[in-house]
Write a structure and sequence with these properties.
This protein is α+β, with helices and mostly antiparallel strands. Among the domains are: about 1-105, Orthogonal Bundle (Poly(a)-polymerase, middle domain), CATH 1.10.1410; about 310-505 and about 690-705, 2-Layer Sandwich (Beta Polymerase, domain 2), CATH 3.30.460; about 710-845, Alpha-Beta Plaits (2-Layer Sandwich). Helix content is about 35%, strand content about 15%. The chain has 26 helices and 29 strands. Helix 2 (about 30-40) crosses helix 4, helix 16 (about 480-505) packs parallel to helix 18 and helix 17 (about 505-520) crosses helix 19 (about 550-565). The two termini are about 60 Å apart. It is found in: Nucleus, Nucleolus. Keywords: Membrane, Nucleus, RNA-binding, Transmembrane, Transmembrane helix.
Length: about 850
């Protein structure tokens, strides 16, 4: 485009460096590149121009003459032509910024500089934190008149776009001086036209795009403090900011001019630059707000909490963390415990700021529930209660000789601690508690915290195995690995990501957007939350060739690009948390990865505490799910970038959060009244029903609310785990129909007995898990998608043990088993009575 830093300019610059002996013939190509980047990074041609003219000729104009006429000066060998005549100072400063960044990348041994600098494209949408479009460039005619740019307009031959653009950028750079380290613009493209037709008009260049690269510490500041009222600069400040400027007294006693921007939530504060841009362009450039399309935060509506239009959950997350900190102090100071508490570590995503929809303080409405002793059970005729998630906390007890060395005895001791913690918290702090064998739930400030006692030697004891010869040896077991994951690795990950959030305030929101997208694609059960958190952390810790994101939207776009373009087959993704890995460590990880690739997970993540096992991706995603994820990320990125770069389109960014359902074989449609997270859905209902809770964080002496109750998830668990016995047989398994007749009443009553039901699940064989895969958006999805497994419809030899979900037929005079689709679909409805609205079989997608 017009005024670009072209390859010709680069060639002239290298020639200049050669003439000045900053480059010599003996240098390699890499050294020439470094020398050129170094010169660009340290030389501002908008202040100090350069010339290729060798001899000083008094008749030729000097560089100062060029500076009076042009923003960027680079004179050709004749001494008469400025090669950068059409370049704006903003565009050169962008080149200068990129040169500085490139030098940093080349000097970083942890980064593949060649790949980052020469092979990775940097479109504006992924480079800048916010972008906005000037849709109607014809409005710049009024800008030239308002800014009195007649001389510049004449110099440009009437091209009002080229005349006004430098002044627009300069205006914005001044208004965003502390907030943005770079204000850049796209280049007006001159369209081609037939020689026998009229040339295009200046307005035909299309919308102009501006990019803002923020300074994270100041970008969201609500205050623009000016000079003191009696200083001569105060008049200039008032003139620049117009009616927004007002006198204010500050805490130090000074009375200064200031501008205060209206913003109460973190989401609104991130959009203060938009307020500034709209105000300044209207005041000084006569550009109406309708001509500005600001697309810096369109995606944030997907993680907006509840019906409030202002916030995206950051404040709710801070409230959760404050309540957790207070509970931690109470646990530390508990009296009469036989062993002291040595550490309290939160492991729930809300405590690392990455929970998609953070918990909101809730108090149950008693009229929606049945009271059973000290518990509440939802009424069948009422809508399902709102989902209340337990916030898991690991409570480490001190080591002592009193701890037994038998794993079963340790579990009993831990159960006793859970009982005692509940009793002491009730006595000493008047907290409502509900103890269980494996944990204690604490209702505090409207949140439910789930305390789980941990003993540091328990994982080692679980690894003990006695050989037939009587020798004691240690080997990993599934139980020991799971316990280590929950009590050691997950607390470390949570604390590390909590620290990352303090360094980069938009890390949490970016991760929440990424998780929301994965869940919307019905894949949240196929990839762990910790894995997504680490993928997003990689974008902040290793952003090359970009800078770390300062807005959730650009972070999410880079997340999609990472999924779509990273070579998962041939490379490990190394996430250097707390800079715990050295250059040699990374090299060793890569070498071992190559040597053992066939035995490693398809998505391999390495961290300082987990260099070889990739524990967060060991079980999932599978190769097929990863392939699907890469395809969805690629298409979503393409669709989003097309929409965000087209200000004249509808810009329905939610389209990439609506999953394509044509891919699936069966759709199970759910009753919205029985979906507890319905308000978290992508397309939220206009009218919502009461969910049996009210916001109230100051409630005391109340009954414990229904916790972790999501009928859809429990229904999915049954589909995957429960055997195809009919209900009478199941009731008999549970102890006869007289034991608890509510199991047969319907889905909701049956699920409320989940504790009894789970006792049976361990002894039952899987029913549909070998026939189908189930996909669901856990954040308010109204459809469960079912995909038949590729081999499930191949006839199998007749065996009594393989008759689950199948029927007998004859093929080539032999008895074979094939899936009994009609019965399976009927089971889907029976199991989900009260929850399932209908089952849609897409018969064209499968054959028997």
């Amino acid at each position: 485009g017009l005024g670009c830093f072209s390859g010709f300019l680069v060639s002239m610059l290298v020639a200049y460096l050669l003439m000045k002996r900053k480059i010599v013939k003996m240098m390699s190509g890499y050294q020439v590149l470094r020398s050129t980047l170094q010169f660009l990074a340290t030389t501002d041609l908008s202040v100090t121009g350069i010339s290729l003219a060798k001899d000083a000729d008094p008749s030729l104009p000097v560089l100062d003459d060029f500076h009076q006429a042009f923003e960027v000066v680079f004179v050709d060998p004749s001494g008469l032509v400025n090669l950068c005549a059409d370049m704006t100072a903003s565009k050169y400063h962008q080149v200068q910024f990129e040169a500085k960044r490139s030098m940093e990348i080349l000097d970083d041994r942890m980064v593949d500089g060649f790949q980052a600098l020469l092979m990775t494209p940097k479109p504006m949408l992924r480079t800048f934190d916010h972008i906005f479009h000037l849709k109607h460039v014809s409005k710049l005619q009024g800008t030239c008149k308002k800014m009195q740019l007649l001389n510049e307009l004449m110099d440009r031959g009437g091209n009002y776009v080229a005349a006004a653009l430098p002044f627009i950028v300069s205006l914005l750079a001044r208004g965003l001086s502390q907030r943005a380290q770079l204000v850049a613009h796209s280049l007006p493209e001159i369209p081609e036209w037939p020689i026998d037709a009229e040339p295009p008009k200046h307005k035909d260049v299309g919308p102009l795009v501006f990019g803002l690269l923020f300074v994270p510490e100041f970008a969201a500041s609500t205050l623009e403090k000016g000079p003191q009222a009696d200083h001569p600069e105060a008049l200039e400040f008032r003139t620049f900011w117009g009616e927004k400027s007002e006198l204010r007294r500050f805490q130090d006693g000074s009375i200064c001019e200031a501008v205060v921007w209206e913003a109460s939530t973190a989401c609104q504060k991130r959009l203060i630059p938009e307020q500034i841009i709209r105000h300044l362009l209207k005041l000084h450039a006569d550009i109406p707000e309708s001509s500005i399309c600001y697309t810096g935060a369109l995606l944030e509506s997907l993680i907006r909490t509840g019906k409030e239009a202002g916030g995206t959950g950051e404040e709710a997350m801070v409230s959760v963390v404050c309540s957790y900190d207070d509970l931690s102090r109470k646990l530390w100071n508990l009296k009469e415990l036989p062993l002291t508490v040595t550490a309290v570590q939160g492991v729930h995503p809300a405590l690392r700021y990455t929970d998609v929809f953070p918990p909101i303080p809730m108090k149950p409405i008693y009229s929606f529930h049945n009271r059973r002793k000290h518990l509440l059970l939802p009424l069948e005729e009422k809508p399902c209660p709102a989902y209340i998630t337990p916030l898991k906390i690991i409570c480490h007890m001190e080591g002592s000789g009193q701890w037994p060395q038998d794993k079963e005895a340790i579990k009993r001791i831990k159960a006793a601690f859970h009982l005692q913690l509940a009793e002491l918290l009730r006595q000493q702090h008047q907290l409502v508690c509900r103890p269980a064998v494996t944990h204690t739930d604490v209702y505090k400030d409207g949140y439910v915290f789930r305390l789980q006692v941990a003993y540091h030697r328990e994982p080692l004891i679980l690894k003990e195995v006695v050989t037939p010869e009587g020798m004691l040896k240690y080997q990993d077991t599934e139980e020991s690995r799971q316990l280590e994951l929950e009590t050691l690795h997950l607390p470390y990950l949570t604390s590390s990501l909590h620290g990352l959030q303090q360094q980069h305030p938009v890390f949490g929101s970016t991760s929440r957007l990424a998780k929301r997208w994965i869940s919307a694609q019905l894949l949240s059960d196929s990839i762990s939350e910790e894995c997504v958190d680490l993928l997003v952390a990689f974008l902040f810790l290793h952003p090359a060739p970009f800078t770390p994101p300062s807005s959730p939207q650009v972070g999410f776009l880079r997340f999609l690009n990472l999924l779509a373009t990273f070579d998962w087959k041939n490379n490990p993704l190394i996430v250097n948390l707390n800079t715990g890995l050295t250059d040699s460590d990374c090299t060793e990880i890569k070498n071992k990865f190559v040597a053992a690739r066939s035995r490693l997970p398809v998505m391999f993540l390495a961290t300082p505490k987990d260099q070889w096992s990739s524990m967060w991706t060991r079980e999932r995603p599978s190769a097929q799910i990863l392939q699907r994820l890469v395809l969805l990320a690629s298409e979503s990125l393409r669709a989003l970038e097309e929409q965000l770069m087209d200000p004249l389109s509808d810009q329905d960014v939610k389209m990439v959060f609506r999953p394509p359902l044509d891919f699936y074989d069966v759709l199970i449609h759910l009753n919205p009244n029985q979906i507890p997270r319905l308000l978290e859905s992508v397309d939220r209902p206009v009218k919502s029903v009461s969910r049996g809770v009210v916001k109230n964080s100051s409630a005391t002496n109340i009954l414990f609310p229904v916790v972790d109750y999501d009928p859809v998830q429990l229904y999915l668990q049954e589909l995957r785990e429960m055997c195809c016995r009919n209900w009478p047989e199941l009731l008999w398994c549970l102890g006869g129909s007289g034991r608890d007749e509510r199991l047969a009443v319907g889905f909701r009553q049956q699920i409320l007995q989940v504790t009894i039901l789970n006792l049976c699940l361990f002894s039952l064989q899987n029913a549909f898990d070998d026939l189908a895969l189930f996909f669901y958006d856990k954040h308010g999805g109204e459809v469960i998608a079912v995909l038949w497994k590729p081999l499930s419809f191949q006839p199998q030899p007749f065996k009594v043990s393989s008759m689950r979900g199948r029927k007998v037929t004859t093929l080539n005079n032999e008895l074979v088993c094939i899936p009994n689709v009609e019965a399976i679909l009927e089971d889907f409805e029976i199991l989900g009575e009260g929850l399932v609205k209908s089952v849609e079989a897409r018969t064209e997608k499968w054959t028997i």
